[in-house]
Amino acid sequence: MANKILFCATMDVHFKAFHLPYMEWFRQHNWEVHTAANGVMDLPFVNKRFNIPIQRSPFRLDNIKAYHTLKAIIADNQYDIIHCHTPLGGVLARLAAREARKSGTKVIYTAHGFHFCEGTPLLNWVLYYPIEKGLAHLTDCLITINEEDYALAVRNKFNAGHIERVHGVGVNTGKYKPINVLHQIDLRSEFGFEPRDFLMFYAAEFNNNKNHKLLIRALALMKEEATTTKLLLAGDGPLLGDCKELAVQLGVEEMIHWLGYRDDIARLLPMCDVAVSSSLREGLPVNIMEAMACGLPIVATRNRGHKELVVDQVNGYVIDPDNITMFAACLLELKRSQDLRQAMGLESYQRVNAYSLTEVGQELREIYTQYGGGIHAAQDQHNRAYI
Fold it and tell me: How many whole angstroms separate alpha carbon 383 and alpha carbon 379?
């Protein structure tokens, strides 16, 4: 009988974005791969998909139904490993797997950035800290993806079987990579930009945490160079309309290109000059790692995820989220100096290697091998290329 692993998250898009290489690896080892999440997305490398009504808000009654459905799925399938992700996916899966753990099922939980951390509101600590610490004892392996979360879990004695730190979910450095000047000019022409344009890129959902309004206000301070300064915003979300209104109010609507949802970011990023990020809270942001892999300097707000990836004045700038003037000043400094952009971009490219799919895959292989009875280091040698 084949070994089985269940990947659980709030929404199934999470699997497509972050976990397909690891699902493929399990299939290469002849494991059955199942998923449980809200959604009906057709995913490769998955033997069986369960659409369960997990909701992002912890106060939605649908989560009770999702818990009971998930508990039945786990009882029916007798998984060897359950790897859960996202706050609600992690809560429901660990609660639902309590009986299964008594029969040998191993539960791994990846915290993609605790909702409580330095600088977050007290309410976040009151709501989320007791839940995460309380559920640690139902976790065979707690994986953190940044140094601050790892130190917090160890310091506060989260009672998981093991606490590990890996370098995020991995960035595909074969797909995201720098391009030469001629290729950059061709891509800019294809997308309607000029070689002399100063292009800044940000890919993120339009919500409160991603804080796009900071970028729009910083752009307003750069209006004297408006003819060549362009802000490319990829993504959709509930605050898109508000951001467009603010751009009109500040007179910068002609400087912003609203790209909507994109699946061609690997082509858009390397033609740009700078990547920006204005978010208030990050675990270890993939969008920044992708930009670094493309050899771009970064201008980002100060939070644990950004601080881990961006060294201030080395491969970019890290700025307090309420300092709009400094954010604009750093962008202007990069705009005016191609040498500075190249030097910082080279630093980004060199630093991102530790976060590549190859490196993160090795870290996860070691964890999976420890908890998966059907995976052995000896038989893994010929499959290293898959992660």
Answer: 8
Residue-wise pLDDT for 195-253, tens only, equals 999 999 999 999 999 999 999 999 999 987 778 999 999 999 999 999 999 999 999 99
Q: In what order do the strands lie in the sheet with 106-111?
A: 48-51, 32-38, 4-11, 81-85, 106-111, 141-144, 162-165
Q: Which run of H or of E encompasses 354?
A: none
Tally of CB atoms within 10 A around 14:
22
Span between the terminal Cα atoms of the chain, in Å: 25
CA-to-CA distance for 341 and 323, rounded, in angstroms?
22
Q: Which of 295, 275, 361, 300 is nearest to 18 (CA)?
A: 361
Residue 104 token pair: 């040998």
pTM confidence score: 0.87
pLDDT at 266 over 50: yes
Return all residues near 74 (Cβ < 8 A) that are at least 6 apart.
6, 82, 96, 97, 99, 100, 105
Q: How far apart are CA 139 and CA 95, in angstroms?
A: 10
Unique residue bearing structure tokens 């309607």:
192
| CA distance linking residue 215 with residue 220, whole number of Å | 9
Q: What is the DSSP letter of 181?
A: H
Residue 178 Ramachandran class (φ > 0 left, ψ -120 to 50 alpha, else beta): beta
- Measure the CA–CA gap between 121 and 335, rounded to whole angstroms: 35
Closest CA to 172 of 84, 45, 294: 294
